[in-house]
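Posting for a labmate who doesn't have an account.
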Amino acid sequence: MKKNNSSRNSRRTFLKSLSVAGAAAPAIVPSSVFGANAPSERVHVAAFGVGWRGSAVNGSIVEFDDVRYVAVCDCYESRREGKRKEWNERYGGDYVTAYSNPWDVIKRKDVDAIVVATPDHWHVPLAIAAARAGKDMYVEKPLGVAMEWAWKLRGELKKSGSRFQYGTQQRSSAQFRHVCELVRNGYVGELERVEAWCPDAAQQWESFAGAQSLSVPRYGSLRPVNLPAGLDFDVWTGPSPERPYTVDTCTPFGSYHIYDYALGFIAGWGAHPLDIAQWGLDADDTGPVYYEGAGNVPAYGLLDTTDEWDIHCYYKNGVVMRFINDRAARPVVMRYRKRWSDHGTTFFGSEGWISVDRNGIEASKASLYSVELGGNDKRLYKSGQHQRNFIDCVKSREETISPFEAALRSDTISHLSDIVARTGKPVEWDPEKEEMVGTHPGERLLGRAMRKKWAV
């Protein structure tokens, strides 16, 4: 029942060889490369993680007629088998295979691209393995738990030429693009400062019935319990250290806010407003040079990521960005905004300010609401739909709207802000060398060991 993939593979190999060599894919490629049925050729995709977030992302991609899922990998048997059955029913045949072990998927030669929507600690290891296997990847944010892992991924992507799309889907939203275009074209004057804020752990304190029924602290239970049926906890733990399973470990509460698996929402949610700040600042290949501020790490419970922070990030050009968690941001942001949002990015210039979140735009003056960019204004990459952009770039070999370098630079801000919050000490950073200037007790936090069994 499965299609012969020889023409598809030869076509993709041809285009990837051009991208690795640094050449742009030609506008016209001989029909012998594409084959007679080029318009109907499908991109074969494997899904890693099909929980809440994974179901949302893959649910968009599965709708595309030029995509076929061939593999689904999840640590929960019920999830992977549920998606296998759902997608096979959609395709009308036995096309999708379910896996628990991710390496069994990576070695499949018929997989063109992967979608990584696992807990954060698996994002970069899976991406590294995919790049080594010559596969393209859509990777959910944040990028990862260690900068050293991300730097390794950069090297693998350069060698493989694999296409990378970061899950910062706000770049594919017209309002975020429009605000960044206004800022870059000087409609708020000379840029002076930025405020970026996002939800923190407080948004999830009451979210999980398991924690409530056991009357555990709001920072999660440390009491070991038996593993639920159908969970491969060894695979779920992956490259992270082994530790006991508790009722909260594998929930979003645990996977987002346990330091062995994540940095917390300072990275997991912070990736969104920081990405827009970097885009508006035209800083996708650089970042702040100095960080100072304060934060809080809970003293008890399962949650041990930074759950409150207020960090000032200084760019070389004099612009200062204040990066704040939701609870600290409200009194700051509501000094000038009329409408509260638990996330957003505000650009302040010499001639006014403009602020954007997923619910809309606010500005200091009415004229900023009706600006129509002129012919001489710089325009930014336009994408109508984030996952569609990824699939299009898999096929065309063009750069995605959220490429790896932009992901790494915004992720760096999260990591260094977290280090300031954890150590209580400012960080001086060289964004060209990507290293701390002088000695710092938090330097060791830029790297982590991978558990040998799952190391890449």
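Reply:
Got it, the structure tokens are right above this. Residues 174-381+404-456 form a domain with the Dihydrodipicolinate Reductase; domain 2 fold (CATH 3.30.360.10).
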